[in-house]
């Protein structure tokens, strides 16, 4: 069992996701085909995330020039376009490409770091102060 900050980091990591949108050019890409798509970041948490810095690199089925991105902030439950990847070549066996939610696993890799804004977080806790009643002798 980790400490509370480890648990918070783990939860925020699960809440920050990247999605591919507007996949274009090919429905069932084959080696040599060219495709285009957009990479969107989605903050599913109730906290603002700041200073997102990352990179998008080719996956095992593609070849393109890696790119970096910076996002100053993304609001709670917000989404933002990070990068448009255009006209990239499919370079690997098409059987290795999954054309569903897992397509980013084959087409691109994303690494990112960020910080969360905790100043607006309010913690509420009710606790009783207990004392012993002293009975005079």
Topology of this structure?
Layout: H1 4-15, E1 16-24, E2 34-43, E3 49-58, E4 62-63, E5 67-74, E6 79-90, H2 103-107, E7 108-116
Antiparallel strand pairs: 1-2, 2-6, 3-5, 3-7, 4-6
Question: Pairing-aware structural class of the strands and helices?
Answer: mainly beta
- Taking all residues together, what is the mean pLDDT? 75
Largest sheet: 4 strands, antiparallel
Low-confidence stretches: none
Provide a quick synopsis of the model:
With 137 residues, this protein is mainly beta. It has helices at residues 4-15, 103-107; strands spanning 16-24, 34-43, 49-58, 62-63, 67-74, 79-90, 108-116. The strands form two sheets. Strands 1-2-6-4 form a four-stranded antiparallel beta sheet. Strands 5-3-7 form a three-stranded antiparallel beta sheet.
How does this structure look, described?
This protein is mainly beta and 137 residues long. Helices cover 12% and strands 44% of the residues. It is built from 2 helices and 7 strands. It has helices spanning 4-15, 103-107, and strands at residues 16-24, 34-43, 49-58, 62-63, 67-74, 79-90, 108-116. It has a 4-stranded antiparallel sheet with strand order 1-2-6-4. The N and C termini lie far apart (49 Å). The mean pLDDT is 75.
């Amino acid at each position: 069992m980790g400490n509370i900050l480890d648990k918070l980091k783990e939860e925020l990591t699960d809440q920050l996701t990247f999605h591919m949108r507007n996949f274009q050019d090919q429905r069932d890409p084959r080696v040599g085909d060219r495709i285009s798509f957009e990479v969107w970041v989605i903050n599913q948490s109730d906290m603002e995330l700041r200073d997102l810095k990352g990179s998008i690199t080719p996956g095992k089925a593609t070849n393109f020039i890696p790119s970096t991105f910076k996002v100053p902030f993304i609001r709670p439950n917000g989404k933002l376009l990070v990068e448009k990847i255009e006209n990239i070549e499919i370079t690997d066996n098409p059987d290795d490409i999954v054309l569903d939610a897992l397509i980013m696993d084959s087409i691109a890799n994303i690494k990112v770091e960020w910080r969360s804004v905790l100043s607006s977080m309010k913690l509420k806790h009710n606790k009783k102060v207990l004392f012993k009643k002293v009975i005079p002798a």
